Automatic annotation (TrEMBL):
It comes from Tupaia chinensis. Pfam families: UQCC2_CBP6 (PF20180). Residues 110-132 are annotated as: Disordered. This is Mitochondrial nucleoid factor 1. Its main location: mitochondrion. It is found in: Mitochondrion matrix, Mitochondrion nucleoid. InterPro entries: UQCC2 (IPR037698). The keyword Repressor does not apply. GO terms for biological process: mitochondrial respiratory chain complex III assembly. The keyword Mitochondrion applies. PANTHER family: UBIQUINOL-CYTOCHROME-C REDUCTASE COMPLEX ASSEMBLY FACTOR 2. GO terms for cellular component: mitochondrial nucleoid. Keywords: Mitochondrion, Mitochondrion nucleoid, Transit peptide.
Amino acid sequence: MATSRYWQFLKLCEEWPVDKTKQGQDLGTYLWQRVAEAFREGDNTQNAEPEACDQMYQSLARLHSNYYKHKYPCPFSGLSVEEYKLILSTDTLEEFKELNKGMWKKLQQKFTSKGPKEKPKAWAPSLSRPLT
């Protein structure tokens, strides 16, 4: 039985997309790491709690199949999937952190660092259009 669980999780990991723009916060990468930890011995791994393992697999399979996306649609946001991906990327989140800095921190950085010019904000064009 542990063999079939191991192969189920491997198949799910292979189907789950890994997003390189979300460094340190990508669910696909995290899933690969957790499966590697849980099944260190591969097919020979003995699970102490098979029911919990099956429940975890079923929950992840529902997430992967977009079960909750279809069950609870969110039509009011007005953003496309590509715009969500852009906003949630690591680079954009760093830019938002920069925007949220206090005035004193911004002034300190402005006068202490003389680095290359600031790169353009990747998320600015997508958020400038009016919501429909």
